């Protein structure tokens, strides 16, 4: 391993830790943003995953079209699968922390995406500075921590990673990056 790879790895670790700690610190204390509606949405997502059916007064179906129509009012399919994956990977129960952690994780991955995107365009130092500014940006931290508006940070995360893979495709010419983007 050469010196530049060591610096890159160190930058990634530092950025990940700063972004993650700022987004997760005191997350279980944010009860003013947490409502029973959020808990119900997560519980129904888990119920769908376990039983392939929703127990809802307005919708009792086990079809994919039923899932799509239900998710239109609830959010998106990515929201359901993100909640399910976090709940089952970490074995969490449905509470303030387990519902809010998805926004914090996607916010953290947005910071890493900015680092790789800017590094692809410029150099290591500029990428670290750009990602550090994004990591400590109060508005993005608040968006990551807010349960009701974490869709914004999730969209930003996917947009940044898409741009990274798009630029990477043009720089390398490898089709795998084109397909990912």
Question: How would you explain this protein's 3D organization?
Answer:
- This protein is mainly alpha-helical and 181 residues long.
- It has nine helices and no strands.
- It is globular.
- Residues 54-60 have low confidence and may be disordered.
Features:
single chain; 181 residues; globular
Summarize the structure.
This protein has helices at 3-24, 36-51, 64-74, 77-90, 96-121, 124-135, 138-145, 150-172, 175-180. It has 181 residues and is mainly alpha-helical.
Gap between N and C termini: 29 Å
| Uncertain regions spanning at least 5 consecutive residues | 54-60
Shape: globular
Mean pLDDT: 77
Report the major sheet: none
Radius of gyration from the alpha-carbon trace, in angstroms? 18 Å
* Helicity level: over 70%
Question: Strand tally, please?
Answer: 0
Query: Into how many domains do the coordinates divide?
Result: 1
Give the DSSP E fraction (strand runs of 2 or more residues). Answer: under 5%
Decide which structural class fits the backbone: mainly alpha
């Amino acid at each position: 391993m050469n010196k530049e790879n060591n610096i890159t790895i160190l930058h990634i670790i530092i950025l990940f830790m700063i972004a993650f700690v700022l987004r997760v610190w005191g997350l279980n204390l944010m009860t003013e943003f947490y409502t029973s509606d959020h808990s119900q949405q997560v519980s129904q997502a888990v119920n769908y995953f376990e039983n392939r059916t929703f127990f809802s007064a307005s919708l009792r179906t086990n079809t994919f079209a039923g899932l799509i129509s239900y998710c239109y009012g609830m959010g998106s399919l990515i929201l359901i699968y993100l909640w399910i994956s976090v709940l089952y990977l970490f074995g969490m129960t449905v509470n303030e922390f387990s519902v809010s952690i998805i926004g914090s994780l996607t916010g953290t991955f947005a910071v890493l995406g900015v680092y790789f995107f800017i590094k692809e365009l410029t150099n290591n130092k500029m990428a670290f500075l750009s990602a550090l500014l994004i990591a400590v940006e109060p508005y993005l931290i608040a968006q990551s921590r807010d349960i009701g508006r974490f869709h914004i940070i999730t969209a930003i995360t996917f947009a940044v990673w898409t741009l990274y893979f798009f630029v990477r495709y043009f720089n390398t010419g490898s089709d795998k990056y084109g397909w990912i983007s």
